[in-house]
Amino acid sequence: MDDTQKLLMRRYLLGAVDEGEREQVEEHFFSDPEYHAELLGAEEDLVGDYLESNLSAEDRNLFRTHYLATPQKLQSVQVTAALLKYCSTAEAETTRPEAFTDSKSQSKARQSSGRNWRFAYAAVAIAALIIVSVTVALILRKQGGPTESDVSRELRELNGPQSASKTAGASMILLPVSLRGEGESPNLSLRPGTEVVQLILVLPRDDYPAYTITIQRDNDAKPYTVDDLHPTNTAAGKALSLKLPAWFMRPQEYALEVKGLTPDGALKNVAEYTLKVHR
Questions:
Q1: How far is the C-alpha of 227 from the C-alpha of 230, rounded, in Å?
Q2: Which of 59, 71, 177, 226 could disulfide-link 55, Cβ–Cβ 3.0 to 4.6 Å?
């Protein structure tokens, strides 16, 4: 496998790929046994590099925010870290000077053997945990799409301080239901190839320094929440900008509720919005 494919695998594991690259990796994972093994090996190397502090600052941040976002993978890494610490302690105990009466060459051989055993044993644990975590994660994605944590993480990233680089391919201005009336919801049609959708929610009033938006889709058991949004000036008045990944926008009805954050930390209802998406 060439370096380009290895880099793609690592970027995939860190959540730094686009939709097309993600689909490419996942398709190969299920159809190509050799690729399957390579991806598991790449994940093992990534976890090892994280535990040994061999990742760049950017990759380490992506590892923490993307890879460790799921409870299963967080537990996997925690178990592996504990195992490495245990093995390191055990090796130190067996290589103390007073524990040996043999020659320097014998001592070095034992120390080398201890290190090899430590990393081999840890690697077995990493591989065993990774085989379960990556396979289950990809099967769930194939069967039911992104998990709740996937959605919540991407919503945070799209609407965070560093989201300016995420250019919207479609946008729509929404008025509160109280202003436009109880008629049919505005319709949004998404073109193929759209990756990010931007909704401009016009505020009936601007009484709060920060706002929270909850997004309820027809088929979701509970809404998704985007916090710490700040109003901006638009031609229609003060408004909130909400960016959503296009894959999140299924053809169905959406209900959005805006709440203002008071100085004492309470949330007060501000406005409700509705939207219907078409493909």
A1: 9
A2: 59
Alpha carbon separation from 196 to 89, 193, 218 (Å, rounded): 49, 9, 20
Domains of the chain: 3-145 (no CATH), 164-278 (2.60.40.10)
CB within 8 A of 24, min separation 6: which ones?
8
- CA 155 to chain CA mean position, Å: 9
Q: Which of 27-31, 193-197, 271-275 has the lowest mean pLDDT?
A: 27-31
Provide the pLDDT confidence category of residue 208 given band limits of 50, 70 and 90: very high
Residues in the chain: 279
The rounded distance, in Å, linking the Cα atoms of 187 and 279 is 10
Identify the residue with better confidence: 168 or 135: 168
Burial (CB < 10 A; 0-12, 13-18, 19+), residue 122, is buried
CA distance 254 to 277: 8
Residue 262 token pair:
């008071």
Residue 100 exposure: Cα atoms within 13 Å on the Cβ side: 16
Strand extents, DSSP E, the chain: 170-174, 187-189, 196-202, 211-217, 224-229, 232-234, 237-245, 253-261, 267-278
Residue 159, SS3? coil
Which residue, 125, 141, 46, 45, is CA-closest to 81? 125
The answer to whether the pTM exceeds 0.70 is no
Distance of CA 21 to the CA centre of its chain: 16
